[in-house]
């Protein structure tokens, strides 16, 4: 697959101009105080499907031939990419089928069906769903949409165009990674618009396929156990990995517990309901103050499609202060144990 260009992103912006308005990017003094940095939150959670991926879905379907539109499209997703493709299919009047995991977020399943798309619930993980989608595409004669196509990345790039136009002197932008389209788009736009800005990716340590693919220099599969649906991919994706290689400044891993704490912080200090993936960037800033202290940074709240069960977990998650206190107690306890061994 070809690597999208800055010109592709400009063309995508023209496509999206009459269909999506630029999303807000705000700072919150209370959030800055906790994170120890000047933080600009890009609110992709307010998109019409509650996530950034809608930019890519519309861009892709706008570029499709009339033949492919008549045949329809099929794709696979845990939810946000699903809603993106379904939303775009509704706009262009294209038949659409989405394959989702058997235990997919019921709110996201309902949302996809409400957009008029057929939903096939088959497979335990999104990676198993990919095989089902290939089968369904063959059976129905539909065009298979992969989650990392060039047009999708070009559409997502418009998010980072807006970020760098709004705050051109950023020190860093922190991007959550599932398939990696967001990180790829950020790298492309930073190179063209803000070459001094560091692009830092973040993924759950419970589903580190993207991270491990980046570190090893090739796409690999890995365990996939994260509770953050938008980060739940069990393999690296070729095109995003090709784009970010040599361009990312760093690729961090955070725990699911840290993501839940970050979701709570977003709720209490930024008036924002963020799903797990949408809070991952804040979790990274919390986890690595050495990288971000006193810096001007952007964090991408990539989505806000949290289920009721997820939000219930967020409400009981420890605050950053509580988490820090627990870590301090654990360290103190460990040191005490070591001292007892030394003096025994």
UniProtKB/TrEMBL annotation:
SUPFAM superfamilies: Tryptophan synthase beta subunit-like PLP-dependent enzymes. Keywords: Lyase, Pyridoxal phosphate. It comes from the Bacteria. Residues 20-303 form the Tryptophan synthase beta chain-like PALP domain. Its cofactor is pyridoxal 5'-phosphate. Pfam families: PALP. Belongs to the ACC deaminase/D-cysteine desulfhydrase family. This is Pyridoxal-phosphate dependent enzyme.
